[in-house]
Write a structure and sequence with these properties.
Blueprint lengths: L10 E2 L3 E3 L5 E3 L7 E2 L10 E4 L2 E4 L4 E2 L1 E6 L13 E6 L13 H4 L9 E2 L2 H10 L4 E4 L8 H13 L3 E6 L5 H8 L4 E5 L5 H8 L4 H13 L3 E8 L7 H15 L5 E5 L14 H13 L5 E4 L4 H4 L1 E2 L6 E6 L2 E5 L30 E3 L7
Parallel strand pairs: 9-11, 11-12, 12-13, 13-14, 14-15, 15-16
Antiparallel strand pairs: 1-6, 2-3, 3-4, 5-6, 7-10, 8-9, 8-20, 17-18, 18-19
Helix pairs in contact: 2-3, 7-8
Length: about 375
């Protein structure tokens, strides 16, 4: 974990403690990295400078882009609207199948070419008519302070904040973080401790605690994504346990997204997910009471679209990230039977579509 640290890049943090042997222990996540002077944690962006844990990526991003909100994926939060997305570098898990490994596992801080203050990000989001800002590409747990400050600046301008996270977080920083978020998509990577330990270098229980905290202790809109890897987390038994737990502990209105794996990073020999696996997962979830189950990374309009859980009629038609139909009333109810659809909706959907628009921020932190 040793690496040269430039003190000029250090931003003070508060979720840490001093140990009797002179090291400091980071308490942002359940990894609890114990660091000597000038040593970094596994995430690579939090380190020990002067006997305190600092954040080394504050104000520096791997890039800014305007995405469709459905790409996060969030299907029940301001559908059709653009979201101003950014991330930094580093991650506090070590998933062998990471699909963004070039960002999340980067050890080159020079990759963080774009610099912007929280206020500059909020202004840029407003100027580009984005309804929300997403903390994504890598896990915002690692850039906790930068994300919170940005969310505060966004809230002042009426812009909402979206966390895209694995939910691997300690209780105190979790509570601090989610008081500033408006929506979240949490990766529930599997439903076994073995998977988390062997393929992610983490543990399942803290993620389950995060999910329950968001759902029951906050007003944050919550959706969940599970990337299905053949032979690892796609058995009927595991999918049953996962979807039953979500229905019982979180409620049937929490959308579940089952996404297709493609070989990447340290799992290049693993096969891609067959579309049939995603359809099977969706059917299992629905049979266990999940009202909104989706498939991702494959083209399947039925599994992309939102259906009324009461009468079965189409509420929101989707073709990839394009909205094709809108059958919700201005109150967010089914136009056929009047049943409410869970989510955060406005009277009319957005029309951003599928386009992805990179944004080059003005140089500096102004």
């Amino acid at each position: 974990m040793d690496a040269d640290i430039n003190p000029a890049e250090a931003f003070p943090t508060r979720h840490w403690r001093k140990l009797e042997d002179g090291r400091v222990e980071c308490e942002i996540c359940p990894r609890f990295c114990k660091l000597h002077e000038n040593q970094r944690g596994l995430c690579f962006v939090r380190g020990n400078v002067g006997g305190a844990v600092v954040l080394l990526s504050y104000g520096r991003s791997s890039g800014f882009c305007i995405d469709p909100i459905e790409k996060k994926p969030l299907n029940h939060f301001l559908p059709g609207t653009p979201v101003f997305s950014f991330g930094t570098a580093g991650c506090n898990l070590a998933c062998k199948f990471c699909q963004n490994w070039d960002i999340s596992k980067s050890r080159e801080m020079d990759r963080l070419m774009d610099q912007a203050s929280p206020e500059a990000i909020a202004r840029a989001a407003a100027e580009t008519h984005c309804r929300s800002v997403a903390y994504t590409y890598n896990d915002p747990v690692t850039f906790h302070e930068y994300a919170i400050d940005t969310a505060k600046a966004c809230r002042e301008l009426g812009i909402q904040s979206v966390a895209v996270s694995a939910g691997y977080q300690c209780a105190e920083p979790r509570a601090e973080f989610y008081q500033w978020m408006d929506a979240a998509n949490i990766d529930l990577k599997a439903f076994t401790e073995d998977f988390y330990h062997r393929l992610c270098g983490g543990h399942l229980q803290p993620v389950l605690e995060t999910l329950q905290y968001i759902k029951h202790e906050t007003s944050v809109w919550l959706e969940i994504t599970t990337l299905l890897i053949p032979g690892e987390n796609d058995s009927d038994e595991e999918l049953n346990h996962l979807s039953q737990w979500v229905a019982e502990k979180l409620g049937p209105d929490v959308p579940l997204h089952f996404s297709a794996f493609h070989p990447d990073w340290k799992m290049m020999d693993a096969p891609p997910t067959p579309p049939a696996t995603l359809l099977r997962a969706r059917q299992i979830a629905m049979s266990n009471g999940i009202r909104y189950a989706y498939v991702g990374n494959v083209h399947y309009q039925e599994g992309d679209s939102t259906w009324c859980h009461h009468c079965g009629n189409l509420l929101i038609g989707r073709d990839w990230y394009e909205l094709s139909e809108w059958n919700l009333s201005s109150q967010g109810t089914c136009m056929h039977c009047g049943t409410a659809c869970a989510g955060v909706f406005e009277a009319k959907p957005g029309h951003w579509g599928a386009k992805r628009q990179p944004v080059r921020m003005k140089t500096g932190m102004a």
